[in-house]
């Protein structure tokens, strides 16, 4: 590994490159441009939005645990989404559960399942969908549980974005802000994804010699993003988020794999492992696995 000391901005002195990437810089690869791409990327969030404009099938498996890591509830849910004439709707083809997964009203007992439901499942027919990121202004227009869901969805599916109503966390999510740089080590490496896709892999991880109070201060405990060298599109992202405030106490690990289908980037595999303690809710510990397949965007 070699320290990169190339360009004017001090931040770039904090990035290390492997030997392959160092060689690439001599052939035109720009570290500056690559970091700017990471900072401004919205394709990861829009990949999830692309699920709203296609046909696909999905299968979700979730297990909930108590504080002693004993299984207390689980479920397997399979769905088919149909998309036609700018409208989408879903059918559940499998819905098996055990334990107290649902309450007496047949509603989700757990906040985590409610969050995933609002993100991936459709109630009735939804038409004229207009994809947009959860802006601070949009989130601040919401109230109560809907606002909490929007904040959590932004935190999970668009890490690094500003979150309306939580200004303190916002600063701690900005990996490239001069205030946060001293907390992290940054790397760019060259790796092969699934034995076939050459990638640049960006990784940010806390410095090993951080004091305990500094470890508690940062929200992004690790972030690793794989970019295809040919298209600079994301093919994989792994991240670990944790924080404790009056509103949220959470510690989650998330892995997302993406691929291109008919020129559209989509997530096809999501793994979630962690816990939430949201204000006015009980602590929830869960493991989620979601698989998407049989994508069809029609004629584009």
Topology at a glance:
Elements: E1 2-3, E2 15-17, H1 19-25, H2 31-40, H3 43-49, E3 55-65, E4 71-84, E5 87-99, H4 111-120, E6 126-127, H5 136-140, H6 144-157, H7 167-172, E7 184-193, E8 197-206, H8 212-217, E9 220-228, E10 234-244, E11 248-261, E12 264-278, E13 284-296
Parallel strand pairs: 2-7
Antiparallel strand pairs: 1-2, 3-4, 3-13, 4-5, 5-6, 7-8, 8-9, 9-10, 10-11, 11-12, 12-13
**What is the end-to-end distance?**
44 Å
Percent helix: 10-25%
Overall SS class? alpha+beta
Q: Return the average pLDDT rounded to an integer.
A: 82
Count of alpha and pi helical runs: 8
Give the strand tally. Answer: 13
Q: Can you summarize the main beta sheet? A: 13 strands, mixed
Work out the strand percent: 35-45%
- Number of structurally distinct domains: 1
Point out poorly predicted stretches: 1-9
Shape: globular
Query: SSE order, as H and E?
Result: EEHHHEEEHEHHHEEHEEEEE
Round the Cα radius of gyration to an integer and report it: 20 Å
Main sheet: strand order: 1-2-7-8-9-10-11-12-13-3-4-5-6
Describe this structure in words.
The chain has 300 residues and is α+β, with helices and mostly antiparallel strands. It has one domain. It contains 8 helices and 13 strands. A hairpin with a 2-residue loop joins strand 4 and strand 5 (87-99).
């Amino acid at each position: 590994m070699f320290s990169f000391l190339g360009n004017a901005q001090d931040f770039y002195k904090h990035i290390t490159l492997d030997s392959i990437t160092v060689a690439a810089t001599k052939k035109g690869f720009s570290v500056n441009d690559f970091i700017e791409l990471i900072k401004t990327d919205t394709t990861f969030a829009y990949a999830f939005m692309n699920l709203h404009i296609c046909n696909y099938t999905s299968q979700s498996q979730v297990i909930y645990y108590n504080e002693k890591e004993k299984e207390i509830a689980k479920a397997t849910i399979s769905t088919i989404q149909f998309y036609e004439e700018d409208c989408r709707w879903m059918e559940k083809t499998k819905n098996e559960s055990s334990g107290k997964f649902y309450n007496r009203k047949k509603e989700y007992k757990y906040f985590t399942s409610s969050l995933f439901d609002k993100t991936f499942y459709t109630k009735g027919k939804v038409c004229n969908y207009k994809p947009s990121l959860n802006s601070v202004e949009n989130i601040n227009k919401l109230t109560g549980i809907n606002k909490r869901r929007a904040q959590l969805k932004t935190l999970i599916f668009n890490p690094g974005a500003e979150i309306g109503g939580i200004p303190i966390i916002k600063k701690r999510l900005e990996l490239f802000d001069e205030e946060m740089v001293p907390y992290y080590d940054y790397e760019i490496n060259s790796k092969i994804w699934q034995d076939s896709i050459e990638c640049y892999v960006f990784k940010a991880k806390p410095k090993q010699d951080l004091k305990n109070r500094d470890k508690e201060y940062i929200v992004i405990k690790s972030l690793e993003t794989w970019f295809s060298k040919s298209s600079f599109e994301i093919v994989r992202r792994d991240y670990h988020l944790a924080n404790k405030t009056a509103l949220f106490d959470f510690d989650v690990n998330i892995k997302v794999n993406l691929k291109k289908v008919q020129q559209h980037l989509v997530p096809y595999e999501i793994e979630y492992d962690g816990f939430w303690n949201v204000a006015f809710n009980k602590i929830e510990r869960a493991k989620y696995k979601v698989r998407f397949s049989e994508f069809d965007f029609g004629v584009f």
